[in-house]
Amino acid sequence: MCGIIGFSGDKDAVPVLLAGLQALSYRGYDSAGISLSGLNINTIKSHGRISNLEEKVLSSPITDNGCGIGHTRWATHGSPSDVNAHPHSTELLSLVHNGIIENYADLGSFLKEHGYTFKSETDSEIAACLMDYYYRIYLDPACAIFRAVEDIRGSYAFTILFKDKPGQIYAIRHDSPLIAARTEHGVYIASDLTAIVDSAKDYYRPDDGILIILNNSEISFIDNNMNNVDVPLKAVEWNAEQAQRGGYEHFMLKEINEEPDVLYQTVSTCLRNGLPYFEAAQLQKDFLQNITRIHIVACGSAMHAGLVGKSVMEKLSGVPVDVEIASEFRYREPILNENELVILISQSGETADTLAALRYAKQRGIKTLSVVNVIGSTIAGESDSVIYTCAGPEIAVASTKAYMVQCAVLYILAAHMGLIHHKIEESYAREFCAKMQNEMPKAVAAAIAMEEEIEDCAKDIYNASNLFYIGRCADASVCAEGSLKLKEISYIHSEAFAAGEMKHGTISLVTEETPIIALLTVPEVCEKTISGIREVTARHANVLAICSANTDKNFTVPCKRKIVLPEIDDLFSIFPAVTIMQLLAYHASVLRGNDVDKPRHLAKSVTVE
What we know:
Layout: E1 3-9, H1 13-24, E2 31-36, E3 42-47, H2 50-58, E4 67-73, E5 88-89, E6 93-101, H3 104-113, H4 123-138, H5 141-151, E7 154-162, E8 168-174, E9 179-183, E10 186-190, E11 202-204, E12 211-215, E13 218-222, E14 233-235, H6 240-244, H7 251-257, H8 259-269, E15 271-272, E16 275-276, H9 285-289, E17 293-298, H10 300-317, E18 321-325, H11 326-329, E19 340-346, H12 352-363, E20 367-372, H13 378-382, E21 385-388, H14 401-420, H15 426-448, H16 451-458, E22 466-471, H17 474-490, E23 493-498, E24 515-520, H18 526-537, E25 542-547, H19 549-554, E26 561-564, H20 574-591
Parallel strand pairs: 17-18, 17-19, 19-20, 20-21, 22-23, 22-24, 24-25, 25-26
Antiparallel strand pairs: 1-4, 1-10, 2-3, 2-4, 5-6, 6-7, 7-8, 8-12, 9-10, 11-14, 12-13, 15-16
């Protein structure tokens, strides 16, 4: 989501940093900044475009000594603004950060007790102040950094300048990428190859917890015992465009592979001390206690996320949930009461139909909550409350990781509502949230590891002219998204149905040429879904069954092929199931020779009604 660049060498750092930030801009950003090392650390940052930062830098009387760090920010804590932009500086150091610090509130309280005050709303400034605190104790950058990261929970890539160490850059990472490279004019640190691909022929990718020290032409690596570490050198084999895609053939495939990380980050931002936490979203407990009905309003994939949310919200909270198509919502003049909540879901925060539905609800005095991916977007700004997802920029038109984090937010919100409405115990909520934070992203990663098997299954469907997805309850909701993914990028006509509905007309379209994809993750209705499968296999349809591990153990599913999902509780099986369906659609599209990232007639953000 954010981007990091650092340089120390024998030429001016400013042009290098600005060029690096521009190369990283494909990741999306709302602000940018740089810090330059010299007798003092000079920091310049700006909300908005990198060109705004460039104007500020060129008009500032700064000395360029060939060493500095830069950052593009995609806000996760705090609104987009100059003060929240990176780098964050203290009296002794300047720091940029990618990632999310889960225990930032506890660390902030600790630092306040020791006299620190904060200028920004960010978790990253907490890290800068924590390193400042330990630097005053240890008087050594490496000791201070290693001690600080012992206290930090979450993901991070830190790059730091110390005021009394001019020309030197320190960096360390955990679950967030950093690479280092040496060139004839100096040394680089960056969050991905895009920033350095035009300058470097090879690079280092150190493991988590290894401290990287850059000094003019030298790069060294040490562990927390202060021992030198050998890091293998890797060749740069990509051009700039390939680097933006992370070496993947398409952005869609790259974004599917990012799902485990963005799911973990999104869930982590919705938790505190192992329980749902939405105070930052301005969701008041006393209001939520009195909610009698929820309306989820969205379009396309976001609406399908709402269908998934409906199942788990009603299950955990007992509050009735309606899911509405945004373009229909205001025209059907829904009956809305003051104790009801309207939830708007939009990746961009600019979807015209969803925005119109938001304004319709607000005109009638109904409380609104938005789930969006872009801080500062119109829907976020006009909603009473907002929960931000941490998907980062999604370049491919077909939504993948953004849909997944929308579902994840609704799952945690369901547990939150369940606690408030006394439908679930705290012990259950803790276990639920722990599985969402840790086991679920791992199950998604395991599903991605099955890509070769999924690609082989795609060979059975890519030439089809019609295809159907079937499932029951939450499975039917997931099938709706799987079907949409297939039709929008492969151009195969595909429809999703509740399995029991096939016999009420649609089964007349089933022939021996018809592929059927059946999803079975809800044990209470698996026998019913299997009955539906038997109906279509009797008409010689070719069935691909996607089964949870539990379903596979307890039921015999009549099918031509079967994909068994990674082991996880059935309630969470929808997440790896969606990943399987996304990969199936992706490979079907590739086999048909389509433009996967830019399918015909579609736009990423639909800002017209």
